[in-house]
Amino acid sequence: MYMKVEKILDEELILSKLAEVKDPEIDTVSIVDLGMVYKVAVADKNIKVTLLPTFSGCPALPIIEKNCAAALLELDGVDSAEVEFTFSVPWTSDRVTEDGIRGLKEFGIAPPPEFIEGDGSWHVDCPYCGSTFVTMENIFGPTACRSILYCRNCRNPFEAMKLVSSNMH
């Protein structure tokens, strides 16, 4: 006797599928590890995911939206997948997970810097050698969310995610 077992669409299953969706510009990091997933709602066989963009003008948002919807539609029992972005809740760089930090470093990008209370400075380590002897070459990197730095120790230029924090004044 054949019995069809339908998988329950729970948040854990959905998040594991979204973890397969990589940032189009940084293929070593998923949108889950970047902390972009804000809300997941399931109604019957329909999924609605709300994402937080790292920056509002990010040109990769339409690609991320399309890739998320396509990934969710691969799940058994899903009839529709809606993906939306919200700007009412800001993304902050402290949402990046430990796996996200490792993925950024693997790609050659320093993770979001630590904000040092008091003097307002940043602490950035070189993703190649770990040195703290770095200088900022240009606050404007190839994308709105990254800056260009230079390591005085291993002499490599590198990009660093910009610090976006709700604690900054």
Automatic annotation (TrEMBL):
It holds the Pfam family Zn_ribbon_PaaD. It comes from Salinicoccus sediminis. It comes from the Bacteria. Residues 112-162 form the PaaD zinc beta ribbon domain. This is Phenylacetate-CoA oxygenase. PANTHER family: FE-S PROTEIN MATURATION AUXILIARY FACTOR YITW (PTHR42831:SF1). InterPro entries: Fe-S_Maturation_MIP18, FSCA_dom_sf, MIP18-like, PaaD-like, Zn_ribbon_PaaD. Residues 13-84 form the MIP18 family-like domain.
